[in-house]
Structure formats: structure tokens, C-alpha cells
Predict the structure.
Amino acid sequence: MDHPGQIADQDIHGDTESARRAAPAFAWRSFARFVEVYPVETGWLTLWGRYEQQGAIRRLAGQRVYADLDGVRARLADAVQELTGRRELLAEALVLFDRHRFPPHQPESLPKRL
């Protein structure tokens, strides 16, 4: 079943190496470092990490789903600081985030606890 904002579409053989990713709603990149934000059913999926071997390998340092963009903004700040250690890049990333126009997205509520 397809969902809007789905991260990857697997081919019919289940080969995840050739999976195609949807375009992120927001992306910050600096050389081989990245933070990407995708709308998902329960909020905003935030991925951060590094590219290696000239972009051939994508290494995730972390991933997390946030219910709102305030949580995403805080994670962006933490991830950029973690990945770069440079305050000027942190400030740049936050300015880009604050000026970005995110698509309308209303996360569904979480299911009831068992």
C-alpha cells in the first residue's frame, strides 16, 4: 500500500539497494553531511548522516519522527552541530529551515495503547 511521503518504493523483487527515495520536504546539505525531513503518517521523519565514497554510500547517524515542526527544528540544530561542530553552519541551517515553506501536513493521531 502506498502512503504519501513514503520514503522508499521497493521494486517487485524487494531489492532495497535499488529503492527510490521520495524527495524530502526539506533538506540541508553541507559537503558530505545531510539532514532530510519527510512527511509521514504520524508526523515528520527526520534523517541525518553522511555520504561516503563520493555519495555512493549513505550512512545514517540517526532518524526520528516528530509530531510537529518545532521538534524537527530542534533536531536539525542538534544534528548539524553533531555532524559539523561549526556554529556558523548551525545558524545557516536554522535560517534556511525558518524560511522554508513546508507542504501542508496534518499528522494522524497515534493509535491507542494496548
